[in-house]
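Hey, I'm writing a tutorial for new members on how sequence and structure tokens pair up, and I'd like a real worked example in the thread rather than a made-up one. If someone can provide the structure for the chain below, I'll link this post from the tutorial.
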Amino acid sequence: MYKIAVIEGDGIGPEVVGETVRVIEEIERKINCRLFEWVKLEAGLQAYETYGTTLPDTTSSRLDSCHGLILGPLSTHLYKGESMPNPSAEIRKRFNLYANIRPVRSIPISQCKYGNIDMVIVRENTEGMYADRNMLEGPGEFKIDNDTVISLRLVTRQASRNVAKAAFRLAEERGNKKRVSIVHKANVLKKHSR
């Protein structure tokens, strides 16, 4: 049996996560096999109100013994200060969850303008323009004045290679090793060197 951590999150998080767990449990009933043990953990604004931090130490330590995590939406725009780390960003960094994998498939009973779609988007998930991903300590943002903030963008060779390898492995598993497209913004986000 797999231990799956469940963090409901903020706002619509409890509703979304509750339905996710319900669907998985219904599948378990249909196949007559219990696969998952749910480990309810706390993070987000409710955890802050209870423990004084958005990511309690008990949550962090118990994640180590779990095989996976269902994490609900978090109100990360409200998190400011040392006791309010962004839980999803902290978890991504801690477990090096660099590949955000998003399958996209058309539903046979629906009308789809572009025909039969079956693809997977693999996006780098630990770097980029998000300020909380760009510095060893603290966000990669500099407030120049009350109306202006500059954010740094982090792109490393290693993270780029990791996500590319993940995409090619996934394509090979799906029998499409010659069909990988790389989408970038090099035409807009120019490389500057000194």
